[in-house]
C-alpha cells in the first residue's frame, strides 16, 4: 500500500512501461515533467502539438527530445483529438493536458463517438500527502463535478475507490464529509451522507468501508471523532474524503496543498484512460506527482476494478 | 490594526472592561477560559447554571470563583434565557455558551421578543492566524448559514466587515471565494461573486474592498492570482474570505485550524451582543482567543459599525 509521495513515485517507476499522450505539448513545465518522468523510468510520451514550438521550448530548457515521438498538429482542438485517438488505438495509456484550456481537452476526451467515455462519470481524484501525520488521502471531487446528487456521488466515489485499489489499498475508508457530524434535514449533504453510509453497510456499495456524516476534524483524527461521540474503528481514519460540492472540495484541496503544504497530485478518473490536467496553479512537483498517480491508478483500471 | 493572535489578546485586555454572561457554565474548559480571561484583565463573568456543579468543577480544577457572580439555574433552557436577559438588561456584554447544545443557546438568543436580534442576520465569523505568512484572516460563514443566497451573503459580509472594523481594519479586502476565478453560469457561487463585487464597485456595499470570483490560492497569494491572469492591487491580499456555503466554510476552517495549525477563534456576529459558541472540537487556546475576538469585535458594534 502506498503511504507517501516517495512510494507513489517509486511505484510509478517500477510498474510496467506506459506511454503518455500529451495534448498541445508546447508548454515548458509539461515538457520538463514528461522529460523527467521518462528519465525516471515512469513513462514514454508522444508529444502532440506545434512541433516547432515544442522543439524551441525544449531547447530553451536544455531538454533533449531524442527519445520522444512528436506528432505535429498546431490546431489545439485537433491536437487534443489526435492525443485521444492515440489512446483509443492502444498507442498511449494516459492523456495529459499541455498548453490548452481544460475545456478543450475535456471536450475531446468526452466526445461520445471518438472520446474516452466508458459509461461512468468522469471525476477528479486528488492525492494528498500529510507529511506531519505520515498519511495520504484521496479527495474527490475538487475540480469537475459542481453539485453532484446522490447517484453522481456514488460514481465519483467508485472512481476514487478504484484509484485507491490501484494504490494498493483494497478496502479504503471513506469519510462522507459535511459541515457537521449529524443528520440535519436542512443540510442535503448530511442526508446524502447517511444514505451512502447505509448503502455501504448493506453491501450495495462495495470495495470500501464508510462513515459519515463527518466533519473534517473527525474524518482525520480519531480523538476528535470521539470528542464528538462518534464510535467505531473507522472514525478519524479516512483514506478517501468525499466532499458534497466543488467549492468545499476545491477550498479543502487548496488549503491542504497551498497552506498546509501537503504534497499534492491529481488525476481525472472514470474514463478509458486517466487524464492529467496540469494547472498553472500547481507546482512543478505536483505535475510529476500527477503523472505518477495516473500511472499507478491504472493498475486497478486494467485489472477490472470495482 | 490587529495582525496576530498576540495583538488580539492584548487588545482584549487593554480595552474597557466587559462582562460575559455564561449560559450553563458547568463546563470545565469554559470555566478555565473565563477564569483565565478575568485574570488577564479581559472580562468579568456572570456564571449562569447549576451552582453546585459549577463550584465542584472549579474546585476540581483549582479555580477560585471568589470574583465571579453565580446565578443558580439548573434548567438549561432557563439558564440560556437568564444569560440573554443579563445582556438585555445591560449587566453583561457578550453571551458565552457553556455545557449546553448550540441549538438551545441560539434559540434563546434568537427569541423574537426576549432575544438578542437586531434585525440583521446572525452569522459566524472565524479569525485565523497564518503564522507562517504573518497574516490574519476572517472567514465567514463556516458554522451557521447553510446555503445563503445573495441577500443573505450581503448580511453575512456586513457582519464580518463590522468585526474587521473592530479589529482596526477600516477597509478590509474581501475575496468572494469560489472553486474557480471566472464567471461560470453553471456555478451559482460565481454568479453571486460577480454580483457582490459589482455592487461593491458601485458603492452599494460599503466599508470594504472586494474581488472575486477567486479560488483560495489566488485569494491568499498575489503570485498565484497573477499566474491566473488576475490583475489589480487587491488580488491575493484577502482579509476576509466569504465562502458560498457552510460545507466549504467548515472544511476550510478546519483544514486551516487543525491541519495547517492556524491560530483560531470564532464569534457569532449580527446580534445585539457577540455570542461565543465553544465547541468540543476547539482547543483551549481557541476558547480564549474567541473570548478575545468577541470583546474586540464589540469596539465597532458599540460605535455604530457599517
Q: pLDDT below 50 for ≥5 consecutive residues: which ranges of chain A? A: 302-306
Radius of gyration of chain A: 19 Å
Helix and strand run of chain A = HEHEHEHEHEEHEHEHHEHEEH
- Can you give the helix content of chain A as a percent range? 40-55%
Strand order across the largest sheet of chain A: 8-7-9-6-5-10
Q: What is the mean predicted local confidence, pLDDT of chain A?
A: 94
Oligomer: homodimer
From the spread of the alpha carbons, the general shape of chain A counts as elongated
Largest sheet descriptor of chain A:
6 strands, mixed
**Distinct helical segment count of chain A:** 11
Q: What is the terminal-to-terminal distance of chain A?
A: 17 Å
What does this structure look like?
The structure is a homodimer of 306-residue chains. Chain A has 306 residues and is an alpha/beta fold. In chain A, the strands form 2 sheets. In chain A, strands 8-7-9-6-5-10 form a 6-stranded mixed sheet, with helices on both faces. In chain A, strands 3-2-1-4-11 form a 5-stranded parallel sheet, with helices on both faces. In chain A, helix 2 packs across helix 11 and helix 6 crosses helix 11. In chain A, 58% of the residues are buried. The C terminus of chain A is likely disordered. Chains A and B meet through helix 8 and helix 10 of A and helix 8 and helix 10 of B.
Amino acid at each position: 500500500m502506498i503511504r507517501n509521495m516517495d512510494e507513489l513515485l517509486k511505484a510509478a517507476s517500477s510498474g510496467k512501461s506506459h506511454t503518455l499522450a500529451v495534448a498541445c505539448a508546447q508548454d515548458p513545465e509539461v515538457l520538463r515533467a514528461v522529460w523527467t518522468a521518462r528519465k525516471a523510468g515512469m513513462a514514454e510520451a508522444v508529444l502532440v502539438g506545434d512541433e516547432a514550438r515544442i522543439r524551441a521550448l525544449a531547447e530553451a530548457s536544455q531538454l533533449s527530445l531524442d527519445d520522444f515521438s512528436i506528432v505535429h498538429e498546431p490546431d489545439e482542438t485537433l491536437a487534443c483529438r489526435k492525443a485521444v485517438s492515440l489512446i483509443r488505438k492502444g498507442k498511449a495509456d494516459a492523456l495529459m493536458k499541455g498548453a490548452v484550456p481544460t475545456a478543450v481537452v475535456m471536450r475531446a476526451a468526452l466526445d461520445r463517438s471518438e472520446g474516452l467515455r466508458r459509461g461512468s462519470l468522469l471525476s477528479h481524484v486528488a492525492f494528498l500527502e500529510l507529511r506531519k501525520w505520515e498519511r495520504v488521502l484521496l479527495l474527490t471531487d475538487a475540480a469537475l463535478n459542481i453539485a453532484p446528487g446522490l447517484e453522481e456521488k456514488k460514481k465519483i466515489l467508485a472512481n476514487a475507490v478504484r484509484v485507491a485499489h490501484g494504490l494498493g489499498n483494497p478496502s479504503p475508508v471513506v469519510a462522507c464529509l459535511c459541515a457537521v457530524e449529524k443528520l440535519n434535514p436542512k443540510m442535503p449533504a448530511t442526508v446524502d451522507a447517511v444514505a451512502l453510509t447505509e448503502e455501504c453497510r448493506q453491501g450495495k456499495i462495495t470495495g470500501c468501508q464508510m462513515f459519515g456524516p463527518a466533519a473534517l476534524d473527525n474524518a482525520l483524527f480519531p480523538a476528535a471523532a470521539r470528542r464528538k461521540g462518534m464510535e467505531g474503528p473507522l472514525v478519524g481514519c479516512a483514506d478517501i474524503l468525499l466532499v458534497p460540492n466543488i467549492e468545499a472540495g476545491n477550498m479543502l484541496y487548496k488549503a491542504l496543498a497551498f497552506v498546509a503544504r501537503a504534497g499534492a497530485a491529481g488525476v481525472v478518473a472514470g474514463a478509458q484512460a486517466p487524464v492529467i490536467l496540469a494547472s498553472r496553479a500547481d507546482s512543478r512537483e505536483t505535475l510529476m506527482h500527477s503523472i505518477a498517480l495516473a500511472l499507478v491508478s491504472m493498475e486497478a483500471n486494467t485489472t477490472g476494478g470495482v
